[in-house]
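Lab manual, section 2.4: Encoding a predicted structure.

Procedure: take the sequence of the chain (418 residues), apply the prediction step described in section 2.3, and record the output as structure tokens. A sample record is shown.
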Amino acid sequence: MTDMPPGLMNTMGAAAKAAAQVLATASAEAKTTALNAAADAVWANRAAIIEVNAKDLEFGRNKSLSDAMMDRLMLDESRIQGIVDGLRNVAAQDDPVGAVTEEWTQPSGLHIKRVRTPIGVIGVIYESRPNVTADAGALCLKSGNAVILRGGSESFHSSTAIHACIVEGLEAAGLPAAAVQLVPTRDRAAVKDMLQATDYIDVIVPRGGKGLVGLVQREARVPVFAHLEGICHIYVDGAADLAKTRAVVLNAKTRRTGICGSAECLLIDRRFWDIDGDVVIRDLIKAGVEVRAEGDAQVAGTVPASPEDFGFEFLDMIIAAKIVDGVDAAIAHIRTHGSNHTDAIMTEDDTTADHFFRNLDSAILMRNASTQFADGGEFGMGAEIGIATGKLHARGPVGAVQLTSFKYLVTGDGTTRA
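Recorded output:
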């Protein structure tokens, strides 16, 4: 049994395709106006958004969502301020559409430019986090793409309220309301229809847990930008600075445990362990983290690790830990158990850091910095639509620039080919 209106995705898809044609040639000024007007509307309606968010929180509790998922779902005034700031940050960025990325002249006399163009229609499927409604809508609009949003059932009311503010911004700028559409039903059939909508949707971006992303990657007929899991590692090298390491590890695990940039595995070089002992592990335990330790890393307060704890995305106050013999052992572990999302090294040794960077192929590699920075906003993109770990087209945080393709503009002067 379904409560989806018959032909809903065909109707939304056709409207999105028509809107995409308008957006492809919309002025940078119009898009900026729309985003700033949407930001004004979100702030003006913050009390109403928080009120309907309470309904979503109740729905989430009734579904027995985890604490991490409930944290993702919750909106308060400071988080709404973050949504507003994100909209304004994207508005203030340079418009990527039409930017010349390369330009050259051939011996034949042909002058060639490669310029950025919109992809077309983006489909975004996400769970819990209602702020994705604003982030995805803003980035797609900035990059000249129409978007169809399918938020999680638990964030239905919050996403609907935020979406209404985006539509208000579009209308204020004279842009089509269908440029940013939200699927108006909790029915899961909408997800399947989006994954099959090859006539209308050019790429799907899933943002959520392993179950959702795995489903999308298995069943989509539309191309997908995605990461399956955020299994982020921190390797503490023998040449790591103790004070920096203590601060970074604690932040990477505990700042927000439910995001994909949260550290899930701590690898400690034996040289560091022999000098500074278990201080980093004790910091985590003191902060309330359950440390699942292997071998010599087991100290008072830790829990013995099982093999399944390595390569697992906890999204909770839990971390796996083990001692390794050197950077190559850390690299081997990450290659075996990582998800190519974000991995970090703590070291003051430039040669070791370079070796770590060259020999791992994660979408994001960090040195002496918390993995919690794996975020488009922190990369200066204003916001992100997600993190991509594939190797084609977009990789890492997907911002407005990553939501463009390109075309070649070739100019001759009566030029013919011999």
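Check your result against the sample. The mean pLDDT is 93.
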